Amino acid sequence: MRRRVTTPLRRHGLSVALPFLSWLTLACAREPKKRTAELRLHPCVSLATRELARCGTMLVPERRDRPGGRMLELRVLMRPARGARVEPDPLVFFNGGPGLSTTAYAGYASWALDTLRHTRDLLLVDMRGTGNDAPLACDLYRDGNRLASYLEPMFPLARVRECAAVLSRRADLTQYTTEAAAQDFDDVRAALRIERVNLYGASYGSRLALTYMRLFPSHVRRAVLLGVSPPGAPVGRVFARATQRALDSAFVSCAASRSCKRDVPDPRNDVAALLAGLRAKPAEVRLWNSRRLSTESVTLTAHAIAELLWVESHSPDALRRVLPLVHQAVATSDYTALAQRLAAESRARRAGRREGLMLSVICAEDAPRLSPGDASDAQTLLGAPVVMDLLAACSVWPRGSVTPDFAKPFVSSIPTLLISGGRDPVTPHELADSTATTLSRSERYLDPTKGHAALDDQSRTAISVFIQALKPEAKPEAE
């Protein structure tokens, strides 16, 4: 334990002056780019939470084997603990994706770890390829604000190929992997002179957390993994079966509800009939486009519907809300409401994601272990249409490599809490179960009613209790 020191602020070995006006800063202060591992945090206001924080940037080499080459600027955000006494091991949030900024989700991280922030700082570091410094962003859906592109596959091949060519002019797309991101974070940790951290990784962030634990075990005190995505399980391989289980749960839940059963008597048959009909003949639908203040004609396909249902199945409540729209489309041949929902959901989930980074990670780590057979399963209604899209995109994307140990289970004594949802179509609880077998001090938390990477008050309390464990802990062996 240590007492907070104020003005001048000396935290984690850094000296930061606090002129009054600097607290009104609305963005992270930016240092001149230097080829050095220096990191200075400056007072700022977190744009995500409008609260006082400390911001900075750090340079890391794009290629670890060429430290004199291109440098990448990582945004760093530290939100100070609220209490007068602060523990030396801060909380660290690793975001999902891959492809989403971490600092942009400071509000979510603060909420998820709220009760712990009285005694611990919260540290967020943007993953390489996501920040404002030359992000790996692809304009895959540009269409003059039209809706049609949001009803097409997630990775339109021609635009993926075009994006790869554009980004390759300034970036080595083979250098954006989970292992590289873990090394980047450890550079930040070392620059801040932090000895050990507590990790909270959600969805893809759990993969990054597990990778960091393997590479730098002596610097992790405790870890919480939400929606566990272990490196050994390629993204997409379990989608078809896990999504079917989420659908089955939704069908059972609907049958148990008087109102849902009245409105949707046979949801399973509705989904099957809708997909069969659209495979035979896609539907032409006219939708109102609020951004263009006009209507436009779009084509609704079975592929688009399967992708929508897969996305909606991430949340049991969202999936249940879409079932009446499916029933309406089948019963009346009016696809308007369903197509409008699909366009809105597609636009929302594709916003803010750096698709180039997502492809660099998945094409290096997952695609080599996937096959077309992972996208289809005769025993499921939807299969996994996103898998075929990913495989096609990775066929034209520069592919990086991983170390031989990347996908191997690793033995660890780091206390780890693994949280799963019983209706998760992306990271089903079996992945957490298998991961836990080599983590000797792991604990499991399963909520059979939850979907993908979902938290509520009960699970947040479990996280708080776990991180604040009072019993003595043996320090893991050094790497």
Query: Which sheet architecture does the biggest sheet show?
Result: 9 strands, mixed
- Please give the alpha-carbon distance between the first and last residues: 26 Å
Mean pLDDT over all positions: 87
Query: Given the structure, what is the number of helices?
Result: 14
Task: Estimate the strand proportion.
Answer: 15-25%
- Strand line-up across the major sheet: 4-5-6-9-8-10-11-14-15
Shape: globular
Order of helices and strands: EEEEEEEEHEHHEHEHHHEEHHHHHEHEH
* Number of beta-strand segments: 15
Helicity, in percent?
Answer: 25-40%
Class computed from helices, strands and strand pairing: alpha/beta
What does this entry look like structurally?
The protein is α/β, with parallel strands linked by helices and about 475 residues long. It has a domain at about 135-170 and about 235-405. The chain contains 14 helices and 15 strands. The chain has helices spanning about 105-110, 155-165, 180-190, 205-215, 240-255, 260-265, 265-280, 300-310, 315-330, 335-350, 355-365, 385-395, 430-435, 455-465, and strands spanning about 1-5, 10, 15, 40-45, 50-60, 70-80, 85, 90-95, 120-125, 195-200, 220-225, 285-290, 295-300, 415-420, 440-445. A hairpin with a 4-residue loop joins β12 (about 285-290) and β13 (about 295-300). α3 crosses α4 (about 205-215) and α7 (about 265-280) packs across α9. The longest helix has 17 residues, at about 240-255. The two termini are about 25 Å apart.
